[in-house]
Write a structure and sequence with these properties.
seven-stranded parallel sheet, binds nicotinamide-adenine-dinucleotide, globular, 2 domains, 43% helix, 13% strand, Rossmann fold, 273 residues, alpha/beta, 9 helices
């Protein structure tokens, strides 16, 4: 295969959960730009349709399909609709997830009275919101013989980040799930399905806005601390993730499974000194 075609998603049908979100918008654009058909999936049907229409208006191929990642029946219905229309599903990007305010432990909060229900909610959304779609779409993806699942982790899974315990536990669980599922799908299906993760660093988005910025848009101490610990001294922008995603979804990574591709401006590699 010519090198320029290695990264092509031509002919591939790929579903992105959380596809109407901030990073999901970059992911869905990237897939369409690489020639794939993208299924934009999120909670709100109107948002899915609008995002898909935007992609089509720019010359891409897309379909909006609402589904809650925690609702197996909705996901199965979505899978059947995709298979009826396109006949195959080649990839899944598990981008639904995020921080849950009730799972944040504030600096002045009693460490021994954290909100257990909030912690569970963050764990369920991030971990089970990745596992359930992988279960529902996985067998169809393996049948293509060259399928790929990409999970979205976070640098919060690597070292303790204050406040966001529930979210961090969810993402740390995704890391071991990614490795485990990569090995056990390979044991059963060889290289017909690959499972990897992207580990984004800090991107200023709506879900971390209140943690990082004041109402007037200036940075909180937390944002400045992040920048000090990021060798590139800047936050990422969603487009910074496009290359990593296309690599993991395309034949360019055909011998790659179980990895975490870190896109963080060096944050996790710097001791801070
Ligand atoms: P976002 O809030 O803009 O997007 C998340 C999307 O997931 C939203 O559109 C939301 O509607 C959807 N969603 C939430 N619950 C859902 C459910 N039950 N079923 C279906 N869809 C659901 O956030 P984002 O910044 O685009 O983050 C996307 C992913 O990247 C998340 O997993 C997040 O944890 C991860 N991430 C983000 C950052 C960052 O800096 N923003 C860093 C590391 C990892």
């Amino acid at each position: 295969m010519a090198t320029e075609n290695l990264f092509s998603l031509n002919g591939k049908v790929i579903i992105v959960t959380g596809g109407a979100g901030v990073l999901g918008t970059a992911f869905t654009d990237a897939i369409a730009e690489a020639g794939g058909t993208v299924i934009v999936s999120d909670l709100n049907e109107k948002q899915c349709t609008e995002r898909a229409n935007e992609i089509v208006a720019h010359g891409g191929s897309a379909m909006g399909l609402a589904a809650n990642v925690l609702d197996e029946k909705e996901l199965i219905a979505a899978r059947e609709k995709i298979l009826n229309r396109f006949g195959h599903i080649d990839g899944l990007v598990n981008a639904a997830g995020g921080n849950v305010p009730e799972a944040v432990v504030e600096h002045d909060q009693d460490i021994f009275s954290m909100n257990i229900e909030g912690m569970k909610k963050a764990l369920v959304l991030n971990l089970w919101g990745t596992i359930i779609p992988s279960q529902v779409f996985g067998s169809a993806i393996a049948q293509t013989g060259k399928g790929s699942i990409v999970n979205i982790s976070s640098v919060s899974s690597k070292n303790a980040l204050t406040k966001v315990l529930g979210y961090s536990m969810g993402k740390a669980a995704i890391d071991i799930y990614t490795k485990w599922f990569a090995v056990e799908t390979a044991n059963r299906h060889g290289s017909a399905i690959r499972v990897n993760a992207i580990t984004p660093g800090f991107f200023l988005t709506k879900q971390n806005k209140t943690l990082l910025t004041n109402e007037d848009g200036t940075y909180k101490d937390r944002a400045n601390a992040i920048l000090q610990h990021t060798p590139f001294k800047k936050f990422g922008v969603p487009n910074d993730l496009k290359g990593a995603l296309i690599y993991l979804l395309s034949d360019a990574s055909s011998f790659v499974t179980g990895i975490e591709l870190v896109v963080d401006g060096g944050f996790t590699k710097f001791s801070g000194v």
